[in-house]
Design brief:
single chain; about 450 residues; alpha+beta; Rossmann fold; Dna Ligase, domain 1; D-amino Acid Aminotransferase, Chain A, domain 1; four-stranded antiparallel sheet; 14 helices; globular
Length: about 450
């Protein structure tokens, strides 16, 4: 049994985890950097331990300091949230060595699925459709070009380790391959400590649809339907919804079955997400698996009625997954509210929040750690809130999001609220007709945005 959970994360996800822990009767410990001493997750945890200075590499990315905090507080479990150490196989193994429950997959699973080339080959063997490409990392630019010439352009050069759009390049012509390969390798080495790259066919103008899966580590895997994550900027998601406007019951069944097969193949335990590209013909291809809870998990919670954080914790305590199928009802949309200036290339906008008023009403949820007087630090991701709405249908959910965004007041810093207000008014978005290239031509000028 788990009695006390240390949250090795910050911001809204840390507060989100604390809330579920308290509802389950579990005590909580907030591990925080000096830059986060005034964050709400520190205030609402039962205990709080400072683990270092503001820079992530000296605090949230230090396994030794997390372990020290666990030992000092007597916490018997750690929840890594997303980002930071959540997909670090070494940290998971260290927790196991210290007899601390890591609320997530086993270390070997994280390592296997964290290597994109290994994950792709594992999924291929499990019968999950994959994008044509290299069999693992390519040794050099010559070998990579040979693969690209064979499968045909355009191709995607991608880092074997990491994610978030770093170490990733689209190559549309053979003459540009060497330059883009070198640039991707350098970026991957700087970001992840490994310059290994693999090559895959670039699916032009696809949808990005992911399947939420849970495994109990005992052979049972269930899926919780899909999330539409196509609205992205530079491979960073900005808005998510569930269900997807282009996924019908038949496609959902096919994708869900494939995702479950993939998770079963690695004896998955805990929450995971299978990410797919879906083309115009309805064919789908495995991209990667995220071995953690996702930023966008609330939309799945809204349409299924499940508390995914609670389910993570219960699986970590050895409980089995429920036998009944997961049903989806209604429609949910999530807007990521970032402290960024959408009129200035989404430049981060740290600073003091002078006014903060969240929307309310039926079917409106705000996950945030911010408040009036809160100083947004410049050291971390710029997301300060997630606005989630739920309604019976997608058109009703869009109307509710429009109303909620109009009530959301944040002053003192720039935010992406004006961007989202403009986005949901776009006819193509409202019709559900968009691809991952949607924002490439999106008109975001101040005079045309209701700021």
């Amino acid at each position: 049994m788990i009695r006390k959970v240390l949250i090795a994360n910050r911001g809204e996800i840390a507060l989100r985890i604390i809330r579920t822990c308290h509802e389950m009767g579990l005590r909580t410990v907030a591990a925080y950097s000096t830059a986060d001493r005034d964050s709400l997750h520190v205030r609402f945890a039962d205990e709080a331990v400072c683990i270092g200075p503001p820079l992530s590499r000296e605090s949230y990315l230090r396994p030794d300091r997390i372990i020290a905090a666990l030992e000092v507080t007597g916490a018997d479990a750690v929840h890594p949230g997303y980002g930071f150490l959540s997909e670090n196989a070494d940290f998971s193994a260290i927790c196991e060595d210290h007899e601390v429950i890591f609320i997530g997959p086993r270390a070997k699973t994280i390592a296997m699925m964290g290597d994109k080339s290994v994950a792709k080959e594992t999924m291929r063997k499990a019968g999950v459709p994959v994008v044509p490409g290299s069999d693992g990392a390519v040794p050099d630019v010559k070998a990579g070009k040979a693969v690209a010439d064979d499968i045909g352009y355009p191709v995607m050069v991608k880092a074997s380790a990491g994610g978030g759009g770093r170490g990733m390049r689209i190559v549309r012509e053979a003459s540009d391959f060497a330059r883009q390969f070198s640039a991707a390798a350098g970026e991957a080495e700087a970001a992840f400590g490994s310059g290994d790259l693999y090559i895959e066919k670039y699916v032009d103008r696809p949808r990005h649809v992911e399947i939420q899966v849970f495994g109990d580590g005992k052979g049972r895997v269930v899926h919780f339907g899909e999330r539409e994550c196509t609205i992205q900027r530079r491979h960073q998601k900005l808005l998510e919804e569930s269900p997807s406007p282009v996924v019908d019951a038949a496609l959902r069944a096919r994708m869900g079955a494939a995702a479950a097969r993939g998770a079963e193949a690695v004896e998955y335990a805990g929450a995971g997400t299978m990410e797919f590209l879906v083309d115009a013909a309805g064919d789908f291809y495995f991209m990667e698996m995220n071995t953690r809870i996702q930023v966008e998990h609330p939309v799945t919670e809204e349409v299924t009625g499940a508390d995914l954080i609670e389910l993570q914790i219960r699986i970590a305590m050895g409980e089995e997954l429920p036998e009944e199928d997961v049903a989806m009802t209604g429609h949910a949309i999530e807007c990521r509210i970032n402290a960024e200036d959408p009129f200035n290339d989404f430049r981060p906008s740290p600073g003091v929040v002078t006014a903060f008023h969240t929307p309310g009403g039926q079917g409106v949820r705000v996950d945030t750690h911010a408040y009036a007087g809160y100083a947004i630090p410049p050291y971390y991701d710029s997301m300060i809130a997630k606005l989630i709405v739920y309604a019976r249908t997608r058109p009703l959910a869009i109307r509710k999001m429009r109303r909620a965004l109009s009530e959301f007041v944040i002053e003192g810093v720039h935010t992406t609220i004006p961007f989202h207000r403009r986005l949901i008014e776009d006819p193509a978005f409202q019709a559900g007709e968009f691809t991952t290239a949607f924002l490439d031509t999106f008109d975001l000028t101040p005079e045309k945005t209701d700021a």
